[in-house]
């Protein structure tokens, strides 16, 4: 095997294959934009067994010259608040910001954070070019099917009842300053062999957000609206104290310029 093939194989992340077939997306007892539950039929696809970690993203930054995760122009979700919110954002970001183009050494196996949707898409494009495989962000439907892990109608990836031993979340809001991301795979995988699908970090998906997307859904391989004003992150994160945000069906909408120390992403690929 030549060095090019060796390098390509080295860069390909570990992927789980999600089988083709229908699943029920949404929930009767969810928020308004999670209703009604509806059957969606998806082609088989692959998805990263864990979010992209700092060590993987560092290679992308070195080879592409892409800007490293850091505090850049403040996102709308921060500037729309007050000066105290900006102070908290800057102070907490320092723990996750890269210096000298390198990630914090103690977080190499943690999910990369401080990335916008555009950064995640750029990573997928670089990985595709470097490996010869077409990587992308998962669609919202693909993400939710993955999250459910083959279970039918359960609230969480592991079952109906919340279990704090299964997920990284903010158990005690007063401890926020001492909390943070964890190394991937610290908690059990779901039924599809996927780790950290809820908790640890929110994850970007491909779709634009539409509040009424489930009212007249596309039933086969939905890709979401062609345009929009808001993007979607899924899965909750280490800052989520409300466990409803950790449900498989929860949809969280944010402006496209959003980035934070609690948002990352994982890659997907068609098969």
Task: Characterize the structure shown.
- By secondary structure, the protein is α+β, with helices and mostly antiparallel strands.
- It has a single domain, classed as paralog of FGE (formylglycine-generating enzyme) (Alpha-Beta Complex).
- Helix content is 22%, strand content 14%.
- It has six helices and nine strands.
- Strands 7-6-5-8 form a four-stranded mixed sheet. Strands 1-4-9 form a three-stranded antiparallel sheet, covered by helices on one side. Strands 2-3 form a two-stranded antiparallel ribbon.
- The mean pLDDT is 95.
Give a brief description.
With 271 residues, this protein is of the alpha+beta class. It has one domain: paralog of FGE (formylglycine-generating enzyme). It contains six helices and nine strands; from the N terminus they run αββββαααααβββββ.
Note the main sheet.
Answer: 4 strands, mixed
Strand order of the largest sheet: 7-6-5-8
Gross morphology is globular
Domains, number:
1
What order do the helices and strands come in, and which of them pair?
Blueprint: H1 3-11, E1 15-18, E2 21-25, E3 38-42, E4 45-48, H2 54-64, H3 76-79, H4 83-93, H5 117-131, H6 140-148, E5 202-208, E6 231-234, E7 252-254, E8 263-264, E9 268-270
Parallel strand pairs: 5-8
Antiparallel strand pairs: 1-4, 2-3, 4-9, 5-6, 6-7
List keywords for this structure.
4-stranded mixed sheet, paralog of FGE (formylglycine-generating enzyme), 14% strand, alpha+beta, 271 residues, 6 helices, 3-stranded antiparallel sheet
């Amino acid at each position: 095997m030549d060095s090019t093939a060796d390098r390509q194989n080295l860069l390909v992340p570990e992927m789980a294959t999600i089988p083709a077939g229908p699943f029920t997306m949404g929930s009767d007892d969810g928020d308004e934009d999670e209703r009604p539950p509806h059957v969606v039929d998806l082609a088989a696809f692959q998805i990263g067994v864990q979010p992209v970690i700092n060590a993987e993203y560092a290679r992308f930054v070195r080879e592409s010259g892409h800007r490293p995760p850091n505090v850049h122009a403040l996102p709308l979700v921060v500037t729309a608040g007050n000066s105290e919110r900006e102070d908290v954002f800057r102070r907490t970001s320092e723990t996750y910001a890269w210096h000298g183009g390198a990630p914090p050494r103690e977080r190499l196996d943690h999910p990369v954070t401080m990335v916008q949707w555009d950064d995640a898409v750029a990573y997928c494009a670089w990985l595709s070019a470097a490996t010869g495989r077409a990587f992308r962000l998962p669609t919202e439907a693909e993400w939710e099917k993955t999250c459910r892990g083959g279970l039918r109608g359960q609230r969480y990836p592991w079952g109906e009842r919340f279990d704090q031993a299964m997920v990284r979340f903010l158990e005690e809001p007063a401890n926020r300053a001492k909390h943070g991301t964890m190394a991937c795979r610290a908690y059990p995988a779901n039924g599809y062999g996927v780790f950290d699908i809820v908790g640890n970090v929110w994850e970007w998906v491909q779709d634009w957000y539409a509040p009424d997307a489930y009212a007249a859904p596309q039933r086969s391989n939905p890709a979401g609206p062609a345009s929009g004003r808001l993007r979607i992150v899924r899965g909750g994160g280490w800052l989520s104290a409300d466990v409803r945000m950790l449900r498989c069906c929860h949809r969280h909408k944010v402006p496209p310029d959003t980035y934070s120390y609690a948002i990352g992403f994982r890659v997907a690929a068609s098969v």
